Amino acid sequence: MSETPEKHGFQAEVRELLQLMIHSLYSHREIFLRELISNASDANDKLRFNALATPSLLEDDAELKIWIDYDADKKTLSIRDNGIGMDREDAIAHLGTIAKSGTAEFFKKLSGDQQKDSQLIGQFGVGFYSSFIVADEVEVFSRKAGDATSAGVRWASKADGEFTIENTERAERGTTVILHLKDDAKEFADGWRLRSLVRRYSDHIAFPVLMRKEGEANLDFESVNQAKALWTRARTEIQDEEYREFYQHIAHDFVDPLAWSHNRVEGKREYTSLLYVPSRAPFDLYQREASRGLKLYVRRVFIMDDAEQFLPMYLRFIRGVLDSNDLPLNVSRELLQTDSEVEAMRSALTRRTLDLLAKMAKDEVEKYATFWKEFGPVLKEGVGEDPTNRERILSLLRVASTHEEGDEPKVSLADYVGRMQSGQEKIYYLIADSITAARGSPYLEQLRNKGIEVLLLADRVDEWMMGHVREFEGKSFKDVARGDLELGALETAEDKAAAEQAVKGSKKLLKRIKDTLGDRVDEVKVSVRLTDTPACLVLSEGDLGAQMRRILEATGQAAPPSKPSLEVNVAHPLLKRIDETEGEAEFNDLCLLVYDQAKLAESGSVSDPGEFLRRLNRLLSSVMP
Fold first, then answer.
1. If DSSP codes are grouped into helix, strand and coil, which group holds residue 613?
2. Is 125 in the same domain as 216?
3. Contacts of 341 by beta carbon, 8 Å cutoff, 6+ apart
4. Given this model, what pLDDT does residue 118 score?
């Protein structure tokens, strides 16, 4: 059977990925073998699962294996499996496109810097296209299981933006990938080199990886890996390096994980879990609809790649394997959503993951700092989504504070509580657009004077998160930009006397300012927060803050109306000037200027920038000689 090969162009993202891989992953080039063996293992897993319902798919070849062969003279290397295989449509879909959400946004992040881009590509995943790191041309021969009488398919490309596809009689069930190696990649057509790479990267593969026995013209194959799933072995038998290599296999990453937890549960429920904390976030971490979850096995039989039902959404970054002895082999996603056994395992795995993070936070502070930088905002989602484990999650939070310099979130809530002043009953915090903005906020002035530590929050999720938090270790939380400051026992008798005196002496001024501002504010009152700034806007406890308003507006939703209070520092020279101003026009301009300044400090913008500038210019002109 012969036909003219049909030409196709790669998806734009594939073309870009190929070029970046070829030029950016040179120092990681041997990972191509791990990726191709991993793909072959997945193909065998899928056939074994499908054969449970349709045994005829195995035809007369029920022993699933992986073969590696090479020809040093021809500079070729082949990796073959007898797994599920592909037909023509599968080959075009799987080898010509990248079916991942957010790929366009991902490629916008690539800078052209090879070192930086190689790290991003690792976050994206490498897979089949890593073949072109070492090969000038790649051929793929495949036949889909169950199509014994049908022609196979041949796919080929030189990474030049196109690939060809044609039917072929040369195809056994499964897939064979043939690499035509580059001149500088001849090392991968060497038996000793290939064996060492298989033992390093793929020893844990559950299927035999076969290579020809050493010796000239030897046609016999032998297994070069243990061919035993790593998670089925006792922890005492497994070296740390093996755990790391297995992570790279299941995560398609070439960076080591931060930590892992391997456990076997026996008794009422029997299952084994191997959970990993990655050292960097995947590119689609914040796309909640992206595929996620654990690789699910039932009695060593692979069931699905992304079983998301076993961990909550806020732990979607966890990678690993779950092997259950209790679930049925024909378990579906729908059944997983309603099964009580699944819910029990989900609760246990969630606790185990949080315990793993807590251990890292306690014993490996630098590693935990890396984890928090990559995944902290996602973990914060659990405060609102998982009331059962809220206290556990709160203890894992790391934030910036006025006690520490810099923008790095280093402070735990336990640290804060341990430093609270005598008589302090509140955990004070402030939410801003950035830590820099928070440190310069007028809301901190009185607290800073009294040496009271304030937690500084600037992630998009923070205002939403704090709406679900009431207390920690018996101490309630207080947003310093809302309502009364509530200093309690920290407010001295002198403070109270000075505040009372300020209120008594300012009633007329407060009324004049309120009359000028009208419905812009709910009320005008003397501030106990401010020492250096003339005024600030204060929301009531139930109002949406500026951060949540911007998020709602960005999604096209209308934020509910709110009317803040204006707190004024009557001891400030500007307020004294306003109090002494008799001219109505100048008084109004000064009041509105103070209001707009407070608006800028609270939300970063004013309602009418043009009018604000005109008013400011009028006042500046009036004081110029």
1. helix
2. yes
3. 269, 324, 326, 327
4. 47
